[in-house]
Amino acid sequence: MKSIYSHIPNSIPSLFEAAASTNPVPGGGSVVCTCANLGVALLLKAIRITLKSDSIEKLVVADLSFQENAENLLSFAQRDANVFFQYISALNLPKQTTDEQVNRVKHIEKAAIDAIALGVLMAETGNDILKTCIEIKPLIKRTIVADIHAGAYLVSAMVSVAIENARANLLSIKGNLSYHELDSNLLNINDIHMKLISDLLAFER
User: Fold this and answer.
1) 74 assigned to some structural domain
2) pLDDT, tens only, 167-179
3) Quick check: is 48 in a domain?
4) Of 135, 1, 191, 152, which Cα lies nearest the Cα of 69?
5) How far apart are alpha carbons 76 and 156 in whole angstroms?
6) How much is the CA Rg of the chain, to the nearest whole Å?
7) Cis ω on the peptide bond leading into residue 9 (within 30° of 0)?
8) Residue 10: inside a domain, yes or no?
9) What is the DSSP string of 25-81?
């Protein structure tokens, strides 16, 4: 079955085969975005099972928010593939003359900055989802809270990979004026992520 996203298969077996192949796409970023999308599905399941017996406005609002998140996560999977190809195209630009070398470096930096920006967006989106999980967890039926945890772990994986990929792309712009600001921002996002996942998964005494 062909996906509406040109580089991302839309069946689990097809995605598995593509991810396990030696082809560069889909890579880790695309795969974890797809996993996070499935994680949100579990969060929605937990909400909707709870809403069957209890009408809770905060859960209704979270349901709508998670539906929007789910769409965005799938688009991130495709955008991750796109920025990879953008970077490869920049690397393959001619570099024989001084002008060509300058142009090539400019395009490499642009591709790296675009990839970093996407990584930040993915990580911040994931952190927002985790914040909502913390808010709604006390409202979820006890018998289905495990699905909140499962969904959160899948979203957390996306955040971790997005940050790791973004920091790797920073190496391509080490001389850029925005390097230190971007690096500091990523470290801050990671600190927030670690605190969120710790708070969410803490055992209730």
Assistant:
1) yes
2) 999 988 887 778 8
3) yes
4) 152
5) 15
6) 19
7) no
8) no
9) SS-HHHHHHHHHHHHHHHHHHHHHHHHTT---HHHHHHHHHHHHHHHHHHHHHHHHH
Paired tokens of 200: 């969410």
What CATH number is attached to the domain comprising 145? 1.20.120.680
Is 7 a domain residue? no
Q: Can you give the residue range of the structural domain that contains 102?
A: 22-201
Residues 58 and 139: beta-carbon distance below 8 Å: yes
User: How confident is the model at residue 14, as a pLDDT?
Assistant: 86
Structure tokens given for 70: 């789910």
And the tokens for 187?
């470290």
**More reliable by pLDDT, 175 or 126:** 126
Domains held by the chain: number: 1
Best CA proximity match to 24, nearest among 84, 78, 73: 84
User: Encoding tokens for residue 39?
Assistant: 């994680």
Contact 133, 200 (CB under 8 A): yes
Reported as a single tens digit per residue, the pLDDT across 133-143 is 999 999 999 99
- How far, CA to CA in Å, does 38 sit from each of 110, 154, 183? 31, 8, 29
* Residue where the block lists tokens 């899948």: 154
Please determine, for residue 9, whether its predicted confidence score (pLDDT) is greater than 70.
no
Sequence letter at residue 12: I
Residue 34's contacts (CB-CB under 8 Å, 6 or more residues apart) are 8, 15, 26, 73, 74, 77
DSSP state of 172: G
pLDDT score of 2 more than 60: no
- Token representation of residue 177: 């004026």
